[in-house]
Amino acid sequence: MIKFNMLVRSLFRNMATSTITIVGFSVSISMALILIAFLIKEFSYDKSYPNIDRIYRVIEDENVASIREDVREYMLENYPDIEEACHYNNYQTAITYDNKPFTGNMIVTDPSFFTIFSSQFLVGNSFVSLNNPNDVVITESFAKRVFGDEDPFGKTLVAEYTQPLVVSGIIKDLSETSSIQGDFITNSKLRIRWEGSSDGQGNSVANLRIFALINGDADVTGLQNLLTNDLSSKQYEIGKSISSIKLLPFAKSYFTQGINRSQTSHANLKLIRLLSIISVIIILLAVFNYINLSTAAYSDRYKEIGIKKSVGAVRGQIFRQFIIESLFICSVSFVLAIVLTYLWVPFFEKFLGKDIFINIIFRPLWIGWMIAGVFTISLLSGLYPALSVSKLKPLAIFAKKQGIKQTSIGFRAVLNIVQYIVSVSLIIALIVLTLQIDYVRNKDFGFETDKLIRVDVHWQLGDKTALIRDKLLSYSTVKNVCFSHGSPGSIYSYSSWDVFGDQDNTINQLTVDSAFFNVFQIPIEQGRNMLPSDFEKVCYLNETAFKKTGWDSFEGKSYQGREVIGIVKDFNFESLYNPITPLVVQVSSGMGVSHLTLRVSPENFSQTIDALKDTWGEVCAGYALNYQFYDQWLNSMYSSEEKLTASIRLFAILAIIISCLGILGLAEFSIKKRIKEIGIRKVNGAKVSEILAMLNKDFVKWVVIAFVIA
Predict the structure, then answer these.
(1) Averaged over 253-276, what is the pLDDT?
(2) Spatial separation of the C-alpha atoms in residues 401 and 578, rounded to whole Å
(3) Percent of the chain beyond pLDDT 70?
(4) CB 250 within 8 A of CB 52
(5) What is the rounded CA–CA span in Å between residue 527 and residue 445?
(6) 3-state class of 501 per DSSP?
(7) Are 29 and 337 in contact (CB under 8 A)?
(8) pLDDT digits (tens, 9 = 90+) for 29-80
(9) Under a CB-based contact definition with an 8 Å cutoff, are residues 583 and 542 in contact?
(10) Which of 208, 247, 635, 645 could make an SS bond with 433 (beta carbons 3.0 to 4.6 A apart)?
(11) CA 334 → CA 24, 327, 367, 656, distances in Å?
């Protein structure tokens, strides 16, 4: 029986090896614990809904989540297996109470939403709280934010600065692990905002998302085929027809990528995969360190093993001793890892942008898995040293015939090379991703982003644009101002154009005023500048759209009744991941206004912001002011890539540190074993550089091999 004090004594006897091993294991295990806690939360998304296995989201044309609003009624009337269905829309909007503005996420839906998603009411109930178009149900936290200690029930809120909403219910906040998040819930019949198609006669159809609660015994695939056959055969007077229907289990929605217009949150699969892979790599590096250092330290323990075998110890006992020592070191590392985990959690929450419930891993089920994991790591780490040492014969040991010496050196070389390959690969990946992010930040978008300020404009402020412009231009630090519907980086509308003549006849639309090109400094390659009399009559194509038309000249050509008066230089109006696609820039106010863009003087930015705030307070009283510097806003589009880069940077540093600890231990051991040789060489006139070359020869050789492979 191996006593505890013997394990502690062994730990202190091999202090350098033990320290390096414990540090490597504790860092690795703490990373794994944080990742496990993060993954547990990610995989628990939407699992709190009792009906989750029967909830489906209706997808049109394979990957489009928004669909004609009248599909809901058609489904409920014609398919008995569909027990409930609700519309769903979700966007951030302004809501006021007692003339004080607040911003929150509004869910647009139907009363059946509360049945499908099993909402818990604190005030009111699911049967009557959203029956009237002007009813609103608010969450508990939003009620406290707006009303404080005041009773909200029956009070009136104003949405979008126009629509009065009466609080008819209060529900508990939606779970943090729900991909549906919102602060207040309104009835889809109110139609606060339109999203759809119109026949120009005041008749229109909105496009909303639809969730369905389906009978548990239903043949979902058969139902999906029926819906596709029935709906694709229908011809509509308003809006486009439906080609196919897909019923996507809502339980899979969070991890399903590429759903267009989803309006629910989705997992960052790239980040999850990256964290998973690198955490496993770091644990393996720690295991390799332990094996390396243990096999390197054989000779220090030959006498101990020889004596034990001479007095009757069998191979199984020696094997068990090394495995138990490995388990003891891993257990000590695990305890230290728990401490490190709690210290690092706040940093990783900020790093990942999500809360990490670290206590979740200490539930009985996960404790069992962690114990099994520690045991597995111990077995992996101690197996090779235990097998190698336990097979030695006492006679070979005392005769100093260590038959495993060359084998262990070769095995250590392989492990070292693998470590270096991983470290160098991470460094290369880090350099490439860093260069990629720098490329995005410094990329010429085709328009001048510096000294631009982007301001969100509520649609109701459209009749005040002239007053806002005049007021802003009166300040010396404001050089120019333009209004638009959409803006470079966020295109809100598109259309089909038969002139393209192929299957992909989509063209993006940007609606601007006459100052747009001057503000963004986008050059007109062909054609003329617009005149005041051109408003509502003309448009420009980008170079890509013009090439796709196949025209020899744009003169005399038109787009949807607007004369094409020029070709503008291609510029990136979408993510840099997307190639530049056809774009028409219309000079019009027909689509309303969504953004105000200011070109400002580089001096006195604070003075410019004060001018913007003063103008907004004077002209747009009661409307929230939301602004960003344009280059910062564009860079925010690549936040997920920056997270990936930061992830690799962090883990690359950890991997390199763990690898270097192993090298340090091996170097220290190598020097200790060659002290006599070094002394003799020094006596015979060897220089320091020659001694260093001798000691580093193997390490450099391994690094070069690893670098070539990496």
Answers:
(1) 84
(2) 66
(3) 84
(4) yes
(5) 22
(6) coil
(7) yes
(8) 888 888 888 888 888 899 989 999 999 999 988 788 888 888 999 999 999 9
(9) yes
(10) 645
(11) 11, 10, 12, 21
Strand partners, 67: 208
Per residue in 470-517, pLDDT (tens digit) is 999 999 889 999 999 888 888 877 777 888 876 667 788 898 988 898
Look at residue 86 and give its three-state secondary structure. Answer: strand
The residue behind tokens 């206004």 is: 593
Instruction: Kindly indicate the confidence band of residue 301, based on its pLDDT and cuts at 50, 70 and 90.
Output: low
Which among 317, 316, 322 has a CA at the least distance from the CA of 14? 322
Length of the chain: 710
What is the full DSSP assignment across 329-379?
HHHHHHHHHHHHHHHHHHHHHHHHTS---GGGGGSHHHHHHHHHHHHHHHH
Measured distance CA(387)–CA(377) in Å, rounded: 16
The pairing of beta strand 196-198 with beta strand 163-171: unpaired
> How far apart (Å, rounded) are the C-alpha atoms in residues 353 and 270?
15
User: 205: burial class by Cβ within 10 Å (0-12, 13-18, 19+)?
Assistant: buried
d(CA 617, CA 622): 8
Measured distance CA(648)–CA(430) in Å, rounded:
6
Q: Is 92 helix (H, G, I), strand (E, B) or coil?
A: strand
What is each CA distance from 175 to 46, 212, 251, in whole angstroms?
8, 20, 15
Distances (CA, A) of 659 to 61, 285, 680: 50, 7, 31
Judge contact between 298 and 408, C-beta under 8 A: yes
On whether the CB atoms of residues 643 and 352 are closer than 8 A, the answer is yes
Please choose, from the candidates 5, 9, 699, 17, the residue with its C-alpha nearest in 3D space to the C-alpha of residue 382: 17
- CA gap 545, 547 in Å, rounded: 5
d(CA 679, CA 424): 35
SS (H, E, C) 21-83: HHHHHHHHHHHHHHHHHHHHHHHCCCCCCCCHHHEEEEEECCCECEEECHHHHHHHHHCCCEE
> What's the rounded Cα separation, in Å, for the pair 472 and 617?
12
Taking the model in full, what pTM does it have? 0.72
Contact 253, 212 (CB under 8 A): no
Rounded CA gap, 646 and 271, in Å? Answer: 10
Backbone angles phi, psi at 74, to 5 degrees: -60, -40
What tokens were used for 502? 């192929």
190 DSSP 8-state letter: G
Q: What percent helix, strand, coil does the chain show, rounded to 5?
A: 50, 20, 30
273 by Cβ neighbours in 10 Å (0-12 / 13-18 / 19+) ranks as: exposed
Q: What gap in Å lies between CA 554 and CA 585, rounded to an integer? A: 14
Could you give the CA distance from residue 379 to residue 389 in angstroms, rounded to a whole number? 15
Q: For residue 378, give Cα distances in angstroms to 239, 293, 320, 331, 371.
A: 64, 14, 12, 9, 11
Per-residue confidence (pLDDT) for residue 1, from 0 to 100: 46
What are the tens digits of pLDDT across the range 131-140? 999 999 999 9
Which residues, in sequence order, are bridge partners of residue 495?
507
Q: Which of 93, 128, 23, 609 is nearest to 339 (CA)?
A: 23
User: Counting beta carbons within 10 angstroms of the beta carbon of residue 562, is it exposed (0 to 12), middle (13 to 18) or buried (19 or more)?
Assistant: middle
In which residue are the tokens 């019009």 written? 588
CB atoms within 10 A of CB 709: 12
Q: Which residues contact residue 300 at a Cβ distance below 8 angstroms, ignoring those fewer than 6 apart?
A: 14
Cα angle value 665/416/686 (rounded, 5°):
60
For the segment 285-309, the average pLDDT, to the nearest whole number, is 68
d(CA 80, CA 469): 56
**Measured distance CA(491)–CA(636) in Å, rounded:** 16
